[in-house]
Amino acid sequence: xxxxxxxxxxxPETTLDAGRAVLSIRGxxxxxxxxxxxxxxxxxxxxxxxxxxxxxxxxxxxxxxxxAGKSMTATATIGLLPPSAAVTGQxxxxxxxxxxxxxxxxxKVRGAKIGFVAQNPRAALEPVTRVGDQLVRLIRAxxxxxxxxxxxxxxEILGAVGIPDPQARYRAYPHELSGGMAQRxxxxxxxxxxxxxxxxxxxxxxxxxxxQAQVLDLLRQLVRAQRAAALIITHDLGIVxxxxxxxxxMFAGRVVERGPVAQVFAxxxxxxxxxxxxxxxxxxxxxLASIKxxxxxxxxxxxxxxxxxxxxxxxxxxxSAPLEKAVSLTIPxxxxxxxxxxxx
Length: 344
Ligand SMILES: Nc1ncnc2c1ncn2[C@@H]1O[C@H](COP(=O)(O)OP(=O)(O)OP(=O)(O)O)[C@@H](O)[C@H]1O
Ligand code: SF4
Ligand SMILES: [Mg+2]
Prior knowledge:
By secondary structure, this protein is of the alpha/beta class. It has ten helices and twelve strands. The chain is globular and about 65 Å long. The relative contact order is 0.16.
């Protein structure tokens, strides 16, 4: 797919209702406890106070280097963290804190109201159940469709995500599908019940560019038509520029900058965002350029800014953690986590 320049961003077709957050992540901390060779308990601090909103009718692109905590943010939201995870904060979906939901109450939300595409999609498929049966089960569980109508809907969504000969694939077992096709089946499962929120963790990585465009167009249609919302995790700034309305940049378990895509590309405020955008502009396709450096030490306890070790602008004040601040008077949703951010 030929991607536009990151500055040539797609304007949202509607900003109606944009102020209403479908998903509000507030101050989420996540740690895993483990024992070091001496037997002492250590905490790997994976998320360090994540704040993020996904507004109605909008697609948010979540970017950041490997290990930044993107998948853990998604996994916490969908309630699939392992038992060893200690999580605090709030994840509000339509006003309900998902971190407090358990069992049946959580199941009712997942699959019906929230569609999830995991970073490893094949793991989401049951190996001994035909693809069509898995889809029909989801449809029957969360809609009024049954019998031939449910089967028809399953075939329709398989076609919509670019699966050739969907009638035949309906009867396939997951092991009979290529990796790209299995990925599209999982995307179909996430979208089939027309959820209010879609969380997709690198949903199109590895798909060819035509199918990638088809899947992302379908997602956009869903979001626009139903005033739904989507959070897409990606390493591709071209996808963010072309398909997203808002973006959030993560570093070391924090969202260090967020705001409307056009605004962030035009006036990146955080030193990390500036480096990412500058580095990606120099690359074809705008895949997220990695900036050579060691990943942050998850076990280290520090009160300093999470980016201080890498920041060329770090000063004495950066030994205390900055608060998130508005970057612009006119677009208050554009916010960054840096002591040096000042309103013009
Ligand atoms: N069970 C676990 N125990 C300890 N640390 C973990 C566990 N699961 C994940 N982590 C750590 O959490 C951090 C964030 O992981 P996460 O998968 O969210 O990164 P990511 O931003 O999605 O990266 P990528 O772009 O590579 O997918 C990583 O350093 C990872 O090693
Ligand atoms: S707070 Fe300081 S160290 Fe952190 S990004 Fe801003 S200037 Fe750099
Ligand atoms: Mg990930």
